[in-house]
């Protein structure tokens, strides 16, 4: 655990001006994440090429590996409303026990806001039939939103000493859930990426509220765990490279021989994109969650 502990800064005197700057920075992350959701929706739902590639990835999700299918199925089965509510209550209790009601409130805002937003978007957004695969709108993914919001809430309320470990474990769980929804053909990759951005937007909003409340307090400033950040950066970079290469190969194959595009390659590229997105949002989140005086 200590290897992934967040470390305090050597100096500890942030002033009010610096605190306000942090508040603005967190608010900007929330706005950018929300804009990212709109961009993903436009590119992957409202354009024919985006829909085509997104659906191709989902329909290529024939794993045909008993152990992998079993893990993915169990992960989905374990993500129930009861289990998620229980974890949320635990997160709130941790905030109260630590005498950090602000963190408990921010965690509640994060979980409720993200999940309500996802359900509203899923029921109200339209999905035009541009790829010849008519289906009701599935954008964004409710399972991915639920899993990511609970993981974010735990990272926010837990002490700094274990946040890095929890973030890594939470990222692994969220990536498994996101991939499982695509493997089960419940969602397309864009649905899961949008869900992650929705959770990041509400997480940034919650951390903005916490920062605003403590803007004038001086004290030790905790830095995000370096080991966790490096791991997220490495995994994110590898995932992004794999996604770009894989999707590039899929697009080239569709242009050269549309009937011979390998579904497994498309699915692998989609999985790489999901892993990159998970690593990216969790890296941003542990950076946003750091910085409180009391650990």
From TrEMBL:
Record carries keyword Transmembrane helix: yes
Residues annotated as transmembrane: 20-43, 78-96, 103-121, 141-161, 166-186, 192-210, 230-253, 265-286
The keyword Membrane is annotated on this UniProt entry: yes
SUPFAM superfamilies found in the cross-reference section: Acid phosphatase/Vanadium-dependent haloperoxidase (SSF48317)
Domain spans labelled Phosphatidic acid phosphatase type 2/haloperoxidase: 103-207
Keywords: Membrane, Transmembrane, Transmembrane helix
Entry superkingdom: Bacteria
InterPro entries: PAP2/HPO, PAP2/HPO_sf
Record's protein name: Phosphoesterase
The organism of origin for this protein: Couchioplanes caeruleus subsp. caeruleus
């Amino acid at each position: 655990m200590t290897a992934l502990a967040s470390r305090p800064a050597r100096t500890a005197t942030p002033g009010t001006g610096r605190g306000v700057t942090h508040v603005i920075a967190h608010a900007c992350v929330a706005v950018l994440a929300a804009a990212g959701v709109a961009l993903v929706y436009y590119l992957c739902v409202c354009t024919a090429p985006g829909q085509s590639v997104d659906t191709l990835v989902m329909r290529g999700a024939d794993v045909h590996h008993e152990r992998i299918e079993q893990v993915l199925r169990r992960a989905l089965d374990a993500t129930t409303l009861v289990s998620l509510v229980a974890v949320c209550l635990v997160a709130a209790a941790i905030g109260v026990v630590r005498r950090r009601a602000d963190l408990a409130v921010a965690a509640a805002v994060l979980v409720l806001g993200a999940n309500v937003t996802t359900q509203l978007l899923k029921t109200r957004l339209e999905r035009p039939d541009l790829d010849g695969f008519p289906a009701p709108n599935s954008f964004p993914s409710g399972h991915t939103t639920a899993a990511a919001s609970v993981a974010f809430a735990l990272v926010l309320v837990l002490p700094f000493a274990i946040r890095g470990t929890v973030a890594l474990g939470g990222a692994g769980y969220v990536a498994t859930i996101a991939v499982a929804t695509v493997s089960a053909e419940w969602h397309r990759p864009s649905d899961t990426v949008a869900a992650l951005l929705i959770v990041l937007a509400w997480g940034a909003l919650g951390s903005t509220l916490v920062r605003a409340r403590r803007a004038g307090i001086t004290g030790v400033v905790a830095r995000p765990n370096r080991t966790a950040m490096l791991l997220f950066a490495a995994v994110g970079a590898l995932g992004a490279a794999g996604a770009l290469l894989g999707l590039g190969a899929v697009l080239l194959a569709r242009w050269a021989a549309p009937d011979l595009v390998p579904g497994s390659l498309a699915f692998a590229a989609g999985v790489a994109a999901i892993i990159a997105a998970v690593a990216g949002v969790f890296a941003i989140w542990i950076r946003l969650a750091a910085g409180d005086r009391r650990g």
